[in-house]
């Protein structure tokens, strides 16, 4: 049974994560945007209450510093790893989003190998993350003309003897420029749609791998690069093609991670609202009683909207922890959340007035980040289409 009540240990841990995000991460937000990784990244990461990214909580636990082997403590934390991870992701983004990206983990490439690879591939590349052989991976799906619709990709892989020859390009690839290895989706039978799509492991040292553009000049979320990559006659041995082509299993990963995307926006919107309220409380002397009442009413409305989003994300994460990652619930959670979060973010800026648009504050930066989240792991329109098809048929 789904329970919204959080244990005391869970609340305490989330409070510690929020405090870290505000006190340690936020002061370096501008540097992270300008430099991708601020100079203080190692010191900030070392102070985080957990050792790795919340996306990995479901698979390897929360790894709370100093409590890694405390079985009873871990049991006292709420639910499985996805529920706790979504709540932690929200708090990590209250201060600024670059902090969670700097933590170890966040390896969708490793997840893909674990789901689609054979024993050798899992041992070498997926378990390599756990051994420390690799630190970060990248998933390469998006191309110039298409996003998550794998049936439309044009990158090709042609078998020649015991090798596969990979050609094509990918764009908007997170961490693609410096990943230790990449999982690249390519078409092996052009014109066959999903039936011909396979996943290949590419390492940055492979001859014919090029980073054509280190990062897009993005509106927001500039603290990690989205790269343009090119594959020019890369010759891959047969152990580089992942054994399983059941992409339903792989796409189930996204059913679990989409609520995290919304949790990033939730934390950003909550941080903006709290920042705006604190700022106004210090600058509200000109406010008339009526204006102050209207302000308080707006804050209450926005806080209630964030609570509704949080409950939906928690339910979606809880379902994932029951080994029932519900694709429709994941689509609904992200489609429902992002317009609300974007609205709360913008209205939080309005509460501050013109000051919010100044680079003296981080509000304009956070608003750009909030806009960016709408397209991560599928645009809002895509999610609404999937939900409409489910509810009303094709």
TrEMBL record:
GO terms for molecular function: acyl-CoA dehydrogenase activity. Keywords: FAD, Flavoprotein, Oxidoreductase. Transmembrane segments: none annotated. This is Acyl-CoA dehydrogenase. Residues 139-233 form the Acyl-CoA oxidase/dehydrogenase middle domain. Its cofactor is FAD. Signal peptide: none annotated. Belongs to the acyl-CoA dehydrogenase family. It holds the Pfam family Acyl-CoA_dh_M. It comes from Aliidongia dinghuensis. Residues 250-390 form the Acyl-CoA dehydrogenase/oxidase C-terminal domain.
């Amino acid at each position: 049974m789904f329970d919204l009540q959080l244990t005391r240990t869970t609340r305490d841990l989330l409070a510690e994560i929020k405090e870290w995000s505000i006190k340690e991460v936020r002061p370096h937000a501008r540097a992270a945007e300008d430099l991708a990784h601020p100079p203080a990244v190692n010191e900030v990461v070392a102070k985080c209450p957990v050792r790795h990214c919340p996306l990995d909580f479901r698979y390897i636990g929360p790894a709370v510093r100093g409590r890694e082997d405390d079985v009873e403590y871990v049991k006292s934390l709420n639910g499985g790893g996805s529920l706790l991870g979504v709540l932690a992701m929200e708090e990590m983004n209250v201060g600024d989003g670059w902090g969670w990206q700097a933590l170890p983990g966040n390896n969708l490439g490793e997840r893909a190998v674990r789901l689609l690879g054979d024993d050798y591939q899992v041992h070498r590349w997926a378990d390599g993350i756990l051994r420390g052989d690799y630190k970060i991976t990248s998933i390469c799906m998006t191309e110039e003309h298409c996003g998550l619709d794998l049936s439309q990709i044009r990158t090709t892989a042609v078998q020649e003897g015991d090798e596969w020859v990979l050609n094509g390009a990918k764009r908007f690839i997170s961490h693609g420029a410096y990943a230790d290895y990449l999982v690249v989706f390519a078409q092996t039978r052009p014109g066959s749609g999903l039936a011909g799509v396979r996943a290949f492991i590419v390492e940055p040292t492979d001859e014919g791998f090029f980073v054509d553009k280190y990062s897009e000049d993005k509106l927001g979320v500039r603290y990690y690069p989205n790269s343009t990559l090119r594959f020019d006659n890369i010759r891959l041995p047969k152990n580089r093609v992942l054994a399983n082509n059941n992409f339903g299993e792989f796409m189930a990963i996204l059913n679990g991670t989409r609520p995290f995307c919304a949790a990033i926006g939730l934390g950003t919107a909550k941080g903006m609202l709290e920042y705006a309220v604190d700022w106004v409380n210090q600058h509200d002397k000109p406010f008339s009683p009526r204006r102050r009442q209207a302000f308080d009413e707006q804050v209450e409305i926005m806080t209630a909207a964030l609570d509704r989003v949080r409950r939906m994300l928690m339910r979606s994460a809880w379902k994932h922890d029951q080994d029932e990652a519900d694709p429709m619930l994941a689509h609904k959670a992200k489609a429902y959340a992002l317009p609300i979060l974007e609205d709360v973010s913008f209205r939080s800026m309005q509460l501050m007035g013109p000051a919010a648009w100044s680079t003296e504050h981080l509000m304009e930066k956070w608003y750009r980040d909030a806009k960016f989240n709408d397209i991560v792991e599928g645009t809002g329109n895509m999610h609404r289409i999937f939900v409409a098809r489910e509810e009303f048929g094709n």
